[in-house]
Specification:
With about 280 residues, this protein is of the alpha+beta class. The protein folds into two domains: about 10-50, no CATH class; about 65-230, Barwin-like endoglucanases (Beta Barrel). Helix content is about 30%, strand content about 15%. It has nine helices and eight strands. The strands form two sheets. A six-stranded mixed barrel has the order 1-7-4-6-5-8. Strands 2-3 form a two-stranded antiparallel sheet. β2 and β3 form a beta hairpin.
Length: about 280
Amino acid sequence: MVVVSLPLKLLSCVRNKVTYLVAALALSLIGGTDLVAGGSDLLLNKRLQETKNTTLSSNFPWKCNIMTTTFWIGNNKNSYTSTVNFDSAWDTSWHENYGGEDDPDNRAGSRPKNFFPKLNPFYIALPFNDVAFPDKAAKLIPWYKKEFVSRFKSVCKDKWIAVHHRGKFCFGQWQDVGPFRVDHAEYVFGNAQPDTPTGAGLDVSPAIRDYLAMGGRAACDWRFVDAKEVPYGPWIEYGEKSFVLAQLEKTKKNPRQFKSLGLPEGAKNWDPTKGY
């Protein structure tokens, strides 16, 4: 393969349709290239669909070259913030509902080593809280009218997001607000750039960090995706197991609820670390 250095502007996230075509043509002529953070929407969508065998029908744009940092449920104190993530912006019992601290250093695959979480370990934070800023939410969130239920129910929580880093793609669900800001809808849904003390505009969980092999801090690309576009992977497998485990935990407090789950009697002693 011939290695060609292309101008930074050509490989950056572009919105102009003419530049799209020029970038795609140039890369096709040189036989393609490994994507790093900063590919165009056209190229990133193509690579995502090819590598994950999925079809994208939504047209959410990519946010490119976004400084991405790691955060986790339970404790995230650092030199910039003293935040302790026991609660999320939309879940006042986040730590309890998850099952404990999502220790970033003591892992067993995509989960904390000491327990199996009752929520999906593939989670993300973006710097906007729709419940706290309803006017901005109604004006800027593309799916707001379709999914709005009530003033204090978030239409952002659980939204699926694709994250790209050096040719690898991972998926996670929006579960909290940050880094640093809670009001920056103009970046999350518009064309503004992140405006935080560290320049970070995306927080990802240890599971996503490890899947992408990005270390604690790296430049990534991200975009919203519809649930039907999310391919099968650990973000689905862990999510499914976590959901079943959470339901079983509830039946321990109220055994009569077990029959309503439609599970075989042996499921009462199910160990998610050993499969189904």
